[in-house]
Structures
1.
Amino acid sequence: MSTPITSVLVANRGEIARRVFRTARSMGMRCIAVYVDADAGAPFVSDADESIRLADGGYLDGDAVIAAAKAAGADAVHPGYGFLSENAGFASDVIEAGIVWVGPTSEVIEQMGDKLAAKRMAIDAGVPTLPASDDASGAVDVGFPLLVKAAAGGGGKGMRVVESMDDLDESVAAAQREAKNAFGDDRVFLERYVARARHIEIQILGDDHGALVHLGERECSIQRRHQKVIEESPSPVVDAALRTKMGDAALSLARKLGYRSAGTVEFLLDEATGEFFFLEVNTRLQVEHPVTEEVTGIDLVREQLRVAAGEPLGYEQSAIRFSGHAIEARLYAEDPASGFLPDAGRLVAYVEPDDPAVRWDSGVEAGSVVGVDFDPMLAKVVAHAPTRAEAAGRLALALERLHLGGVITNRAFLAATLRHEQFLAGETTTDFIERVSPDRSLSVDESEVYRAAAAVALWMQGRNRVEAATLGSLPTGWRNGPMPPQSVTLNLGEIEVRVEYQVQRDGSVVMYRGAGAAADESDGKDSESVEAVSKGLARIHDWRPDGIDVEIDGHRRDAAITLDANRVHVQVTRGTLSFDVVPRFVPPGGGDVTGGLTAPMPGEVLDVRCAVGDVVEARQILVVLEAMKMEHHVSAPFDGVVTEVRVAPGDQVDNDAMLLIIEAAQVER
């Protein structure tokens, strides 16, 4: 017997809350959000029909979430992923409160939430598993390299690769701290690590009437810090026979569990042998679920809500059809060039392109603040096309055309990966990033940098005219005689670009390139200086507050531009360049501290492992930071003596905050 759902509370935030709202609203349901103060201005809060503020416990406070559901009159609670989504106690409490739980039963969540118990059940179901141990003393039997894994969670948290016994104790301790912080459970276990493998997962769906199907596989092998960044369906190496074997194994375990709702059975496929091994069951919606939706045409959130209401699936395995290829990229606020460390700040520019047509599951908009309290994912971008190559190209182009500024992101890395010949050849094993090393930042040649800087200079000229209090109709630099040249100096990281230009009476602009270029010509310097000057011509076809259509040296481009204080973000062919406008008068002072170690990201100081006067060695861990529920180590860059310590455990630090100072010295070994 079905129970109609007319309203649903999403016990989550960001893009997944918005994504659930989209389907629920299409089914005629009222959508309710919960939020914490840090998210008060987030798009998902205003997207909801009603939003309830959570107090101190935040998204992990199950009692507060249930109270919010009751206060809003919600028929159902959808947990999204992360937070309480795999908390069996919360699922039971929701049901006891007389509210529909959108997900598998609490018994199944509890069984699969313990990764060790899940492995034992997989063995009972005849599913192959990797050697493992729930005790560090079993490391030798498991074999090196091995993986330390949190028993109560996933998502890359509480995971460490250990190459030898020397690193085992430190890795176990760090994994336990992360697991406790992320999941409230510090239990970890050891598992054989397969260095070159593929991460393959099977999407399953079941109802309360005995129907159970799988929706094919997703490959999620491209990962950093054991967290997925690019996912696709189908896998480039899974053929029909292997798909059937893995699907049957997933369904065998699901039947043993009596599984209902959406879930994922994850496997590791050994690249060398072709064998697959059970990893875990995720009793929730996965971040990468859109690629399955795109190739099957089945809305997984809709199916979750239908099953929760007691409706039958209404179809069997033979009815599942697959079409084309889908690839998802996770856009994060992080710096790939600095080991994928998270970044934080305000998104001053965020404009998703209309073309090419891709799916944007986004949790942000222009003006959104990316903080340190939550996962730094900004959006999931999904391309679906008839072929894998076309999907990859479409997704890369969409990422490149995104106008984005204010935080460092992995956008250029994602696009470089999608365009890499080894990705296109399907060589996407779990060691892809280390083995292939795609470009981690945007690479732009000197000519394009100059044209981008020139576009910025001419856009700023137009902005000055629009904002001019008097004589706004006259061009900048106008005089009652020959117009003198104007100049703007911009910095792109370490690169300084000086743009000198002279507006002509017909509206065209002469561009000068070369040191003191315009001055050399106008002052009548010697012929060698004049010959060093490169002159070009520019013409502005359209000026807007958010961009400029300009032709420079025969290259015409309509570029989006966003100004934030003294930083300008301008769109180029492969992404967005961010220039700092150099002021005409620079205040004195500043400078780096010699030997200073700074925070690589905003976060909390967990541990300080040195004191003033300590002799330290290069690569010795001195400070442990926590950001986005992950630990990050700050190590000594050279042998030396600690002369100053500026932080203590519990301190909150900003990006680039000074942590301590080391004076170089010889260390006896």
Note: Residues 446-467 form the longest helix (22 residues).
2.
Amino acid sequence: MAQYQVLARKWRPQQFADVIGQEHITQTLVNAIKNKRIAHAYLLVGPRGTGKTTTARILAKALNCEKGPTPTPCEKCANCVEITAGSSMNVLEYDAASNTQVDKIRELIIENVKYAPTSGKYKIYIVDEVHMLSGGSFNALLKTLEEPPDHVIFVFATTEVSKLPLTILSRCQRFDFRRLGTSLIVKHLAAIAKDEKVQIEDAALLAVARGSEGCMRDALSTTDQLISFCGNKIAEDDVLGVFGLAAHERIVELSGAVLDGRSSEALKQFNDLAESGKDLQRLLTEMIEHFRNLLVVKMAGDQGGAVDATDAELVELKKQSASVDADALLRVLEVFTGAEGRLRFTASKRVLFEVTLIKASQAREAASIDVVLQKLNSLRGGTPPTSGTAAPVAAKPVAVKPVAAAKPAMAEPKHRQDAVAEPPPTPGYTTSAEQLQAIWAYVHEHFAQAAPLGREFLNQGRALSFDGRVFTIGFDPEFKSAMEFLNSPRFRAVLQTKLREFLGHDVGIHFELAEDPELDARKSEPPASETAAPTPASAVSPFAPATPATPPPAKPSAAAPSSRDTKDFRNDPLIKKALEIFRGQIVTVRT
């Protein structure tokens, strides 16, 4: 009676064209054989079950086939048959995990490479899991690997290339195997099931592909186990029940409850999944993968196949991601990824998962710093939020832009564009120097109270002009960095709020670099020791008319100390109101 052969061995590819999802590697090897550019050492890198050892055996057949070297081995000659059966004397496979010592490598490889192959053109050494070799074994192999005899070819396979010395990597041609896509695994499993005369639902195939995590060997082993359990008819519930997976629809429902902030509903759905025996570690992994897909679809769509999903799943992802912003998805994803490592080692996996769901639901509604600043600005502007209503705080950061001024009563010409960077000046509007300095003094004083961090930067500027629509603030080129700092949305919003408080209407703000005559004059003044001595008071005629001293422009000094101490800051009504709304406390005050 013939022994049963599992699907993973029965359906192992025998030609380069049969290898699934690794065309970038198989095509390179085919071209190398055709062009007679065969290297003496190859390194195959990638996750488990993606075709590394299989590709090494196909390469060995292609090189030692009686018709070869050829990219399409005949599968009929003695060499091909022996290599397929694993009995060839010229294709030697070694497991590095079982032969780590230097003596073993010297005995199995180094001492035997000098002997010519008994049949065929090449003697091929396939070393699986090569990263398990000891440091001494690698050093002993270096010279042989760099200059082997013409009839010797090395093929190394590993899942952890980071453990290999650079001296080994530099002597090999490296090929990186990829994880297989879900749709690719589903298509391949469907073809195998048809040939095996097994009826398996599309949803069941999708569940098997999801559970394999890009590993074709795992997918085939799972299918083999399901056939033994269910017979020739396999449904999705069979797959979920046997392997403790959750249906994709349940993942979507649970993530929807988290995104909507419905913590109680999320806990109820999770309790149902946990009671049905689902693997909590696997469930958390699928939640992370789902939110990752939502974030990618939200930010970039399905560009370049970055989302591994079927067409139906992609439609569902686009629909769900449209109802939430990217920042909220990022916060929720950070909560889940932070819990993934702790879930592996905690004794109370269920409790930790429930706490994670609650945190993720709260993270969805968390306010960003820009939203907090906007609310603070609204409070300072005299428009506090309406009491008695629980308005949810938007999670999406709001970019504060300069408020456009109201349109003049006169009709605008039709040829004028609607979108302009700054409002045009009001015709006939003039501002005296006294009025300009009064506006600037008010803005400067109240800006320092609302934004202490920007006070010293505003000290470097000065009021240049105001035409009724745009208030222009000038900075000497020496203080260009201060201008750039204040030109950020948060500080522009505070300045516009102060202008609106003083003027009673919205105006625009413009920053520009302009030479400061007063600053230039101070730079050109000689030191105090070189100036002439002041005229004695007795030398001044008592009958001379008194000349009133001209006060300097109303520009605060950069070195002037702050007029608000720590006590005043803590007693500020705005700060008190912010602490009340956000339920916070002052930890430290920096001036």
Note: The mean pLDDT is 78.
